[in-house]
Specification:
Layout lengths: L6 H17 L7 E3 L5 E3 L4 E4 L12 H14 L14 H14 L2 E5 L2 H14 L9 E5 L4 H4 L2 H5 L4 E4 L4 H10 L3 E6 L10 H11 L2 E5 L13 H7 L6 E6 L9 E5 L5 H7 L2 H4 L5 H14 L2 H20 L11 E5 L6 H10 L2 E2 L1 E3 L10 E5 L6 H14 L2
Parallel strand pairs: 3-12, 5-6, 5-7, 7-8, 8-9
Antiparallel strand pairs: 1-2, 2-3, 4-10, 9-10, 11-14, 13-14
Helix pairs in contact: 2-12, 3-12, 7-8, 13-15
This protein binds pyridoxal-5'-phosphate (PLP).
Length: about 400
Amino acid sequence: MHTYSNITKAMNIGNPFWEESYQSGLLDISADIADDGQWINTNNHPFINMCSFSYLGLDVHPDIVTSAANSVLKAGALNSAIARLRIHLSLLRDAEHALSNLFSAEAITAASCSAASAAILPLVASGVFTNNAPPVMIFDKMVHLSLSLIKPICADETTVLTSPHNDLNFIEDVCKQNKTVAYVADGVYSTGGCAPVKELLELQNKYGLFLIFDEAHSISAYGKKGRGYVLDIMGEINDRTIIVASLNKGFGASGGVILFKENKYMPILNRFGGPLAWSQQINTAGLGAIIASSKIHQTDELTILQNKLQENINYFDSLLPTENMGDGIALRLIPIKDESKAVEYSKKIYDGGFYTSPLFFPVISRGKAGLRIMIRADIQRADIKRFCDLITQIVE
Ligand SMILES: *Cc1c(COP(=O)(O)O)cnc(C)c1O
């Protein structure tokens, strides 16, 4: 028991902080999006959301929103209530073709990135992608919960290990001792920083290391045509790498996607990929949004938005230096000296017109509490300045 998780313990540690946040009015906020991109809560308090994962602002792009609405009307239904391996709307096929084209890889969608990971990781553990040899699976200690949640299922198929964060020596040692090894990582981590992709690819070359990357934070925001951090370094997908990504963050649509090299795995994924086989698909609004967003990704508009994002990140870094400054990634953690003040700071910042989220153990390591924010392409320079001034005034 409790080899991979302990829910009671996690609740005992995490709940006092959630309760304090709730009592301060920082949780359960009901609000709407105004024309200028700000949010207005139901008490008429306007604020800028500094915690949106929509790095390029595509979530409110008129082409995407319109295509979503029109697709529902054109399909005549929001959902097709049957497993995709039996019958699927041609719209699903069109959306997957658009993704496949964009990322130059085989693409299969899932209802979310979490569902995509739940589909792919047990199959990796089974050995189906590694000549039927179940690999020793290493999960980086900091991988997203949607991945680490699947550890016990994988552990029923093979050996599962947890490595210290970005520890290449640990991974290489396991590769030296075992013929088949798979490593699970986030391309860009929610808590800041990236996977050492270049070095991991070297281990792949040397030992055949199988790699699974969660690119939820980096699709669209980085790389040529928004191919993300990992694919940008790789050049193109290979037969020992699988990427999962959310289409709900930078991509501005809905659902998740699995990217891989070999078309021959498509039937296996459809039939044995857990939620791919037995859960719902992306609905027609989401599929319409994917098609429209894919189109935008093929144009200069994407490059312009990516450049705007980089300008905003650099501007933020120039005003408020943080640990990961200069890495070009949109996630920033503003450190706090006294952990017990995090919610109080966050509340003052919210009153000043910006929503931030305090991060605590166990989401990040003990003693590393801070306010997490994401920089976006669609935040005005003046608002970034106003935000940084507020932080400087309030946070110690
Ligand atoms: C947000 C996030 C997910 C979950 O994405 P969904 O599509 O909402 O399931 C998975 N992995 C990482 C790293 C994330 O940040």
